[in-house]
Amino acid sequence: MATTLRVSPSTAAIPVHAVWGAASGLVGGVGMGIWMSVSRPMEDTAMITMVAGLLGSTNTFAGWLIHLSIALFAGITFGALLGQFAQRPAPAVVLGLAYGAVWWTVGALWIMPANMGMPVFEWNDVTSSSLGAHLVYGLLAGVTFSTLAQLAGKRTGRAAG
Exposure pattern of 3-16 as b/e (b: 16+ CB <10 Å)? Predict the structure, then answer.
């Protein structure tokens, strides 16, 4: 006996949005990673090296791998959760910036310092630079997601969604 599964168009779009989100997360992650590679808010230590500290390393390459893995996960999540709302440039920018700020709050103010034995939810030179980096991530991820949605809509001759 065969079972028929009916899926709404908005639910069917989630895998496509997740793929667009993955690409968007990597673009945002590269931009943010560049920021973190040149920003040295603490004793001439690049922020990307601090990310490597999440796994007990001080290696820049390890920091990039960890960072891009997180950026990929965040991008997939952005696409799956917010992709239906981020099809057009203006909403995508607003949602991207807000999403970057949420990841800054959860990641840079809470998870990372807690894992490294530092005070959580503290405003200092590191967290202020990190806010800028997370906003760069969100902006680039949102713009990239919207661009991919617009390109897909032009390719198929219909509105992306």
Answer: eeeeeeeeeebbeb
Q: Which residues of 134-156 are buried (b: 16+ CB within 10 A; e: fewer)?
A: bbbbbbbbbbbbbbbbbebeeee
64, 48 contact by CB (below 8 A): yes
Cβ atoms 25, 73 nearer than 8 A: yes
The pTM score is: 0.86
Q: How far apart are CA 160 and CA 150, in angstroms?
A: 6
Evaluate the CA torsion angle 127, 100, 141, 75 in order and state its sign.
positive
Task: Quote the tokens at residue 77.
Answer: 């999540």
Cα–Cα distance for residue pair 64/68, rounded to 1 Å: 6
Write out pLDDT tens, residues 9-59: 555 678 999 999 999 999 999 999 999 999 887 777 888 998 998 888 989
Q: With a cut of 60, say whether residue 145 has pLDDT above it.
A: yes
Q: SS3 for 30?
A: helix
pLDDT value at residue 5:
46
